[in-house]
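worker-3 :: picked Sensitive to high expression protein 9, mitochondrial
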Amino acid sequence: HLFESAREQVQAAKQTYATAIETRSNTQRGINELLQRKHLWTSDDVTKFTELYRLEHQHAQAETAARENYQICEKQMDREYMELARSIMERYHEEQLWSDKIRSVSTYGTWALMVVNLVLFVMVQTVFEPHKRKRLTDRFEELLVAKVNEEEEKFRGVFDSLNEKDRLIMQQQLALMETVNGLTEHPLFDEDLIHVLKRSASENVIPAIEAPISLVEQPIMEQTVTEQTVTEQPTMEQPNVIAKVPSLADW
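worker-3 :: tokens ->
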């Protein structure tokens, strides 16, 4: 800013000095013209010569002052320029110093970041990752156990439903067997067998029992009608038949 102001002052002083030179030159030109026709002077020419000579002296002083002012402004501009150059050099050196400091700090910072990253990597691989894997494994085991328990509950419900159906079917079989025994004169199913089946149904167990079906010997009379006689046939005995109680799969 000071250098710009000094340069403007130099420009103004230079313009003033040039104007002073031109003014003095014009005055000297007028004096020379009067001196060339000195033998033809009139009273007005004498007065004009005196006035021009006086002005020439003033213009010479003004020119000298303008020249001195111009030189002073130039010296001031040179000083400001040197001061500006010195400040620029100082700032450049300071920036170089700061740049070196920043570069060194950046180097140390880079090494520090590398060390921190290495430490974090080691910590992640040795501490956090095993903990994370263990937590995921525990969570997976919990979910697996919960899923297995859920499936067991489902299968237990299915098995309970099937057992209930088997029990109902067994009760229906017992009721059917008792009904058949009640409708026939001689029971087709043994009472011990029915008792065992009832106890099994109450205990929710479906046995596969082979028990004999008692068939009472019944006389079978076969009458043959002939033309005049009726022949009486002897009674035939039926052997005991081993019957297998149908299981749930047979029904």
